[in-house]
Each structure stands twice: as structure tokens, then as C-alpha cells.
Design brief:
The chain is an all-alpha fold. Helix content is 85%, strand content 0%.
């Protein structure tokens, strides 16, 4: 494993969690649905990037946690869209 793969795994793992938590936080705001969904997609992409860069040990666990948080944010966004559509 060369240095660029290590940096990609580290950066992707950290960014997947940070952006996933940011997505969940922005979904709580009144007009944060679109921004939260897009941020969740980016968090998911960063987590997958870390796994493709062969993240190991704790960085792999952090990347999987980031993927789970981003997936939860996407599910919350879908539930909000369903609520808004069905409530009218």
C-alpha cells in the first residue's frame, strides 16, 4: 500500500463521518432537505472511496460508520419527502 492510498483511506474515512453528521444536522433545519440529501450522497461517496482505497483497522470501521450515518441521513430525507407529499 503506497502513501496515496493511505491518505485517501484516512481522508475518506474522516470526511464520510463529518459530512454524514453534517447531513443529519442540516436535515433538521426547515429548508435543509436538499442540502442534507446532497451532503449525505457525498458522505456515502467518501466512505466508499475509503473502502476502495483499502482502508484498514480503525479507518475501515470509521468509513463503515460514515456510510451508515450517510445512509441514515438519506433515509430521513426520503421520510421527510414522503411526509410532505402525503400530508398535502
Amino acid at each position: 500500500m503506497n502513501r496515496s492510498n493511505r491518505v485517501a483511506a484516512w481522508l475518506g474515512s474522516i470526511l464520510s463521518v463529518v459530512v454524514g453528521v453534517w447531513a443529519l444536522g442540516s436535515l433538521a433545519l426547515p429548508f435543509g432537505l436538499v442540502g442534507g440529501a446532497v451532503a449525505a450522497l457525498f458522505g456515502l461517496a467518501f466512505g466508499v472511496l475509503a473502502l476502495f482505497a483499502r482502508a484498514w483497522g480503525r479507518w475501515r470501521k470509521i468509513a463503515v460508520a460514515g456510510i451508515a450515518i450517510s445512509t441514515l441521513a438519506l433515509l430521513v430525507a426520503a421520510a421527510e419527502v414522503a411526509y410532505f407529499v402525503l400530508s398535502e
